[in-house]
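Intended use. Records like the one below are meant for learning the mapping from a protein sequence to its folded structure. Do not use them to infer anything beyond what is encoded.
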Amino acid sequence: MSINQHNSTRARGSDYGLQRTREAAEHLASLYEYIHRVATFANLFRENRDLLDVIEGNESIRKGLSRERYIQSLKEDLGGMERLKNIELERKDHEIKELQNKIKHLTSEKASLEETKKKMEEDRIKADRKRMEDRLSWFADRKKEREQHEREMKEQKTKLEEKARKELAAKEDEFQKKESRLQEEKAAVIAENEQVKAELADAREEIRKETKFHELLLKDNRRLDAELEVAQSRCPIQREEPGVFKEELDKLSQRIRIVTTDYFTHLPAGDLAKYYKISKKLVKLHDIFGLEMVPNLPTPASTFLRIRIAQFFIMECLKREVWRPFRSSVLEKQNADPSPVLQALSTKYRDLSQEEEISWRVWTYRGLDTIAAAVSSEAGDTSIETSVNSVAAILSPLMRENIKGRFKEDLTDILEGAASLWTRIRTDNSHISIDFTPPLSLKTGQTCDGWDAEAYDSIDMHGDAIASSSKDVITDTWEPWCLFPRIESRSINDELHILHRGCALYPDSPAFAKGRLEQDEMLRNASAVPLSPISMASA
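Structure written out for the chain above:
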């Protein structure tokens, strides 16, 4: 609550108390008046006592009461009334004094409150006057600031108008200059446009002439294309990407490995004596079986060698029959083998002119095919069939009886695929060479000139025993087995591409020594069997 509200409430309370005091004083005045009348009546009673005695006497007589007793009762009543009057008067006097004191106190408080109220009113008036003066001062300051701001705005407006006027004048000058320059450029463009139109007309005329000339060239190109098609039909030169041949050669190599692994992993059922009989038969079929590497035993190393022998014979078939350059079985039978002479001629011709060598090579192969077709339309099929029978006859003792027919079918598919691939290779515009002769020495796991040595992995071999066994098994004159030839392509631009890396099994392969150790172990376990398959074969 604020000070003004508190003082106002206090003032209202003082007025209310003063009003109550006034009412109490008026009540006491009326009571005092009543007491005064009672006292007056008592005095009147004293003054007319004799008259009252007569009246009381008459009534007492009439009533049968004694006078003295009646007067005595009246005296007692009058004394009691006087005592009561005195007590009441004393009490009223005391209350009057208290009320007078209270009136004085309230009067003083009222005066104090009126003084406080007056002072507060004066303070309020002063505060309002001060606040009004402050507001007037604030408004005056704001007015000054506004007037100052208006003056500054007017000055700034004047400056901006002057600046805008100058900029507008500059822009107008610049615009006029640009307009003049654009007018000049427009005139130049119009003149240039006229020149372009003239040049365009000349160009259209030139295009018409060029179009007519191109039509003549196109007609001539069609004629040349037709002649080229005729020439290509007579000389079908292939243009294959090296990646195409590489992919097909990889598939062929993988196919040979799969087929030889499927058919030569397991030997025909039998005991050790039967295996030695097979060895005796194999020695008569081919000299390679004369080595004591024992490819006809049911042991890991023997199985490894047996599969590689099968691959070797397939490669020998490709080398002699399918992939031999300039081979002609007809000329071989009638005259002599033309292959060495034609190969030497091709090499010399290629050194002089590669493009001419390509045409000569394609025409030469076409001539050989024509000669073969004139003699027998089935010469190619007969050659493949003969090769299949030759390989199957050598490898037949190493296969089970129930799979020999399927082996011939798979081998026929391999040779036919190789022959089809050879037909495209020999007529390609790049010179593709096939090398069946691996380096004489190459350590296992090493590479040399596009050749890899076939690796044989074994975890239970002993180095000293293998080294001594290798010297006993393999002779110094023994040549490595070619398991797949090295094939490379050299383009007309003399770019060399390795289409397939060659792979060969070398004399120092641990497989030979391991096979010898496995053979000796089997001989020790079967004492009745001769010491070696060679000795048994000679017997």
